[in-house]
Amino acid sequence: MPDRGRRGIIAGGIVALVLVAFSVFVLPFAFTTPPPIITRFVATRAFSPGSEAGRALGTVAIRLSEPSNVSITIKDPETGTIVARLADGDDVVRTKTLAVRWDGNDLDGKRVPDGTYAIDLEARAGEKKFSKSRKVVVDTTAPSPEVTVTSTPAACVTEVSAPGEAATVTFSAPNAGVEEKPRSVGPRGSTTWTWNGRDRGGQLVPPGLQVIRVVSEDERGNLDAVGRTCWVSHLAARAVPGRPAAGGQVGVVVAGQDDPEVTLTLRQRLGTPGDRAGVQVLGDQVGEAVTGPASTARITLPEGVAPGSLWLLAATDDSHQALIGFRAQG
User: Fold this and answer.
1) Domain boundary among 170, 201, 232
2) What is the CATH number of the domain that holds 50?
3) What domain count does the chain have?
4) How many CB atoms lie within 10 A of CB 73?
5) Burial 243-255 (b: 16+ CB within 10 A, else e)
6) Tens of pLDDT along 293-307?
C-alpha cells in the first residue's frame, strides 16, 4: 500500500477517536438532562401524635424544579388503603418548596393505630411524572422498663432494665432535691443508680420512707414515670433472733457501734419498701416501745400475731432508724 494511503487511514482513525472522545466527554455537558420534577423529598421517620414533650407531628417537605400537581397520601402499606391525604394533587404548586404536616389522624379525624405507614408522593408537570414513597412510624407507646428499688443501710439502689426500646432514663429523689443526669439505655440494656440518702446540699435526709422517681423517654417524646419507695435508715441493724415466734422477745444488734442506746417499736406491716409510691408501709404501733442499751433492750411480740405481719423499728439517739423485717420460721 502506498505511504499516502496508509497516512490517510491513520488520519481517519485519529479523527474517529477524537469524535468518540468528544461524544463521550463533551456532549453530555452540552445537552444536560433536565432535573426531575421533585429534587428533594424528606419526611419524619417517626412521631408520637398528641405528645406534649416530643415530636407530635409528622412533616413532609419537598423541593420542586417547576410548577407541578402534587399528591401526598398516607397509606396502610399492607392493604394500600389511603389513611390520610396531605395534598390532593388538584391544584398546581407554584412555589419551589412545599411542607405539609400530619397529625396522625385518618380521613375521619380519628387517631390511627400505632404502626408503620407509607407516605406516597406523586407529582405531574405536563408529560413529566414523579413517584416515590417513604415510611413513617406512628408510636404513642411509652417505654416500659422494669424498675427495682432495694433499700440498704447506706443507700437506695435503683435498677432499670429492658425498656423495650432505646430510651433516656432520669433518676431522682424529689423530696431531697436530687436528680441524676439522663442516661441512655438500649432496648434490652440496664442501668443502676445508687443514691446515698443525702440531699443536694450533701446533708443526710431524715430516716424514713423516700420516693425514687424514674422517668423513661423515647426519641418520640413518649414518657413513662414510675415512683417507688425506699427506706432510708443510715443504720445497719438486725433482729436477734431473726426468726422469732409469736409471744417471744426480740432484740437488735447494731453494726459499727459499741452498745448504743436504742428504742425498739413494733408496727403493723402494710407494705414493703420498693413498692410503688403511695403504697403504705407502716401501720399502727403494736404495744409499747422499749428503750435501753442494745445489748439488753428486748421487745415482746404479741401472742397470736404472726411476726411476718410486723415491722421492728430500731432507732438510735442520733435519730437514725432501721426498718427490720422478721424471717419466716421453718
Assistant:
1) 232
2) 2.60.40.4070
3) 3
4) 19
5) ebeeeeebbbebe
6) 999 999 999 999 999
Q: Which residues contact 168 (CB under 8 A, 6 or more apart)?
A: 182, 183, 184, 185, 216, 217, 218
Read off the pLDDT of residues 15-66 as tens digits, 9 standing for 90 and up.
445 444 445 444 444 546 778 999 999 999 999 998 876 689 999 999 999 9
3-class state of residue 28 by DSSP: helix
CATH number of the CATH domain containing 289: 2.60.40
List the alpha helices (DSSP H) in 244-312.
none
Which residue range forms the structural domain that includes residue 280? 237-325
DSSP tally for the chain: helices H, then strands E: 2, 23
Residue that finishes a domain, picked among 232, 265, 293: 232
Cell of 302: 404479741
Residues 286 and 299 in one domain: yes
Coil, strand, or helix at residue 2? coil
Question: 300 lies in a domain?
Answer: yes
* 223 contacts 139 by C-beta, under 8 angstroms: no
Grid cell listed for 317: 439517739
